[in-house]
Design brief:
By secondary structure, the protein is an all-alpha fold. Helix 8 crosses helix 11. Helix content is about 75%, strand content about 0%. It has one domain. The longest helix is centred in the C-terminal third of the chain and has 29 residues.
Length: about 260
């Protein structure tokens, strides 16, 4: 992954992330209820064709997918918090398959657009560091202080205390990154050029949306009756198990930096 981020030119990186999305689509098809190999392959084929079509659009035209993703986040938050109240609305094969498109296709757009930034390799690594910070902070805070369940019907192990711990550590990491990217004279060293306050807000958002991505995948796996999304990475589950947080965190980052909201 690090090699792809730092050493692949933009066009090759598009194929690289496209391959990850295709593997994720194979797993998502199974979680959606498309369990037969032919049906799963057809779903992957549809996703690949959609990626090819999106690749023909310019950045401004492709950005509309980020708006779709933004609307989806609002709905996903409601679904996770209220589960299983609205289960009949999305538990069918078709709704879950469509949800996969709304998540996987914008993720590709977000990462490809981020790759076009100056110093994009460092910037993507920053996003990864923030997500890892959220995971580490949530794990230790949850183990030490966790009492109040975040979404007990979806992922009983996650707590509000864990989420808070993850957000605090991620905010701290973002703050350090906002300082590290400038030299002693205050001159920009890497792409990340923002005030510590904005960096902290960025980190808090990454932690929140990364957790939401993790929760929603747990949501699907519970419905499908499986522990892991796949067996692509022995000992670590599937592609979606490794990228569930990045699906949302990467999209959030692109949206606030140069996407629909562009507040940074």
């Amino acid at each position: 992954m690090i090699g792809g981020i730092f050493f692949l030119p933009l066009n090759e990186f598009m194929y690289f992330i496209g391959a990850i999305v295709a593997l994720g689509a194979w797993e998502w098809a199974n979680l959606s209820g498309l369990t037969k190999p032919v049906a799963r392959a057809a779903y992957v084929g549809f996703v690949v064709v959609a990626l090819v079509a999106i690749a023909q659009l310019d950045a401004a035209q492709a950005t509309w997918l980020l708006w779709v993703a933004l609307a989806w986040w609002v709905l996903a938050f409601v679904l996770v918090r209220s589960y299983p109240k609205f289960k009949p609305l999305w538990s069918g094969v078709l709704p879950r398959a469509l949800i996969g498109l709304v998540i996987l296709l914008p993720m590709w757009v977000g990462f490809v657009q981020i790759k076009a930034y100056p110093d994009s390799g460092q910037f993507i690594m920053y996003v990864m560091l923030l997500v890892w910070g959220a995971d580490v902070g949530a794990y230790f805070a949850g183990r030490k202080f966790g009492k109040h369940k975040l979404a007990k019907n979806v992922s009983p192990g996650k707590t509000w205390e864990g989420l808070l711990g993850g957000m605090i550590l991620t905010a701290a990491v973002a703050y350090v990154l906002s300082i590290w990217t400038k030299d002693n004279n205050g001159t920009l060293v890497h792409f990340l050029n923002m005030s510590p306050t904005k960096a902290i807000l960025w980190g808090l958002g990454v932690a929140f949306f990364g957790t939401l991505g993790d929760l929603f995948e747990s949501h699907l796996k519970r419905e499908a009756g499986v522990k892991d999304s796949g067996q692509v990475l022995p000992g670590h589950g599937g592609i979606l198990d490794r990228f569930d947080a990045f699906l949302f965190a990467g999209l959030y980052t692109q949206i606030i930096f140069q996407g629909p909201l562009a507040i940074f």
